[in-house]
RNA sequence: CGGGGUGUGGCCCAGUUGGUAAGGCGUCUGGUUUGGGACCAGAAGAUCGUGGGUUCGAGUCCCGCCACCCCGACCA
């Protein structure tokens, strides 16, 4: 491909608001172009990278025994309503009605559709196992698209769904897919780790995320020297068995905090450390109010809390419910004299003389100590882990790293096969729902992750397997007839040999071309200039190492294949 | 959905107390150049996010709306 015939924009224009390295480089190197918040076009260079990634994914899916299908992006809303997920999708879904009044969802994921599809096509256990995959655009009206291509409203996903007769079969498929994922990400040149994760709204029993460590990811992974590895969403910590220190203040003292509701406001105003404050949140557990206590610098993890209380239905109370339960408006709740169950994080046991709400408008207490001023209904690990927490093994410490999720695999079970209907007759003629698994890869995110992991100050250093081109030919002085003729000949030779080659045929100064080539990051740069041409040679430069070697013109194609 | 910010050629932006828009980058043309982001000359390109209001006159003042960015909330 010739540079001058490609939609490669001027690479010197650096757009603003490019925060993540991968975002900035993808814009500057002419891979993508932003159209709107979280909506991007892929320009020729970027699209070629996606195609390379897709090629690798296809090969590995094939090896794992999955067959490719293509399901519609347009989903009739009735199908979604069967699984009960239509409502939980909330604002994320992009839904609309056509002129005939039929309601559609632009597919954010395909569990419902694939289950419908398979349900009408399988009858017997002999039809299973089945593993289907597709590579398709997904649509989600993300509230907050971030970091360029890392989180967008429209993105390309490889999604696969397995159907088995029993748990054993699911385990086999899950394992095959896990191995395929390892091979895909390795071939794409990524360093990654696999962590246990939350199943979230997908449901199911088990899931693992494939994470790439990079500074601009959205997720956090907790790990310890003892070998613990889990997503922050589900990471647990060891019980530090704190003892309550001797209080210095003999009983809680009330003080005025007019219009100060948040931990931050109070800690700032009265110079109290947030870790020395008790954050009291009111939740509704199976419809009844409960108080939840964590230190001021912690966040409640609702799924851990759900486990400690032992309920399924849990949500934060609204203003009215808080007023009813505590007698005070939002922002002034505290555990003292509260007549509802009090669930307490381990941290709270370790502080005396804490500051917390007084259950009166514009009032807080100081000098509150657990055991004396209030008692816990139950104590446990109910907050998100933090850097430096005790690991679950009780010995090492947890460290949090920022990561980007590039793949996620789930053991779903029968949630969708039951609600949507994908049943088969087993050997005894009994009707059973298929056991499902689902497996996703964010194709765009591989591109972003590869840039995050392979770049330097000058630009991208593509791993060979997913580079948009294998070789870039650069003429030092394009207006020199001999140089141009030699370059044209080489370009033709490479094209005939079926090599992916980009020919920078612009009549630009050498410096401009060198800098652009480094920015775009094609692994091998082939420099054609008068100097080496005199000796019948060309310079071959590696973007990765920066090393240059001289190669005879007639040996170029063979030496680079 | 809350809090903050910004909207002026493709990009970055200036624009005084109201008088219809400046500069840089990029683009195009011609010339000089050509081994790590050249120089000279010329040209094209803007209904100043949008709707209303005040005014003889609005990029500028007032009100509404919209879009985008950041921080939260949310998130297979």
Give structural notes.
This protein has 561 residues and is α+β, with helices and mostly antiparallel strands. Strands 3, 7, 8, 9, 10, 11, 12, 21 and 24 form a nine-stranded mixed sheet that branches. It has a five-stranded mixed sheet with strand order 16-14-15-17-20. α1 packs across α12 and α2 crosses α12. It is globular and about 95 Å long. The mean pLDDT is 90. It binds one RNA strand of 76 nucleotides through α14.
Compose a concise summary of this entry.
By secondary structure, the chain is an alpha+beta fold. It is 27% helix and 29% strand.
What coarse outline follows from CA principal-axis ratios? globular
| SS-derived structural category | alpha+beta
Distance between the termini: 18 Å
Radius of gyration: 29 Å
Write the layout of secondary structure elements.
Elements (H helix, E strand, L loop, with lengths): L20 H8 L3 E5 L2 E4 L1 H20 L3 E2 L5 E3 H7 L1 H4 L5 E4 L5 E4 L4 H9 L10 E10 L14 E11 L2 H21 L5 E4 L9 E8 L5 E6 L4 E3 L21 E4 L6 H8 L7 E8 L2 E8 L6 H8 L4 E3 L2 H8 L15 E4 H4 L4 E4 L5 E6 L9 E3 L17 E16 L1 H7 L1 E3 L5 E3 L1 E8 H11 L1 E2 L2 E2 L10 E5 L5 H16 L4 E4 L5 H11 L3 E5 L1 H4 L3 E6 L5 E5 L3 H4 L2
Parallel strand pairs: 3-7, 15-17, 17-20, 27-28, 27-29
Antiparallel strand pairs: 1-2, 4-6, 5-6, 7-8, 8-24, 9-10, 10-21, 11-12, 11-21, 13-19, 14-15, 14-16, 18-19, 21-24, 22-23, 25-26, 29-30, 30-31
The chain binds one RNA strand of 76 nucleotides through helix 14.
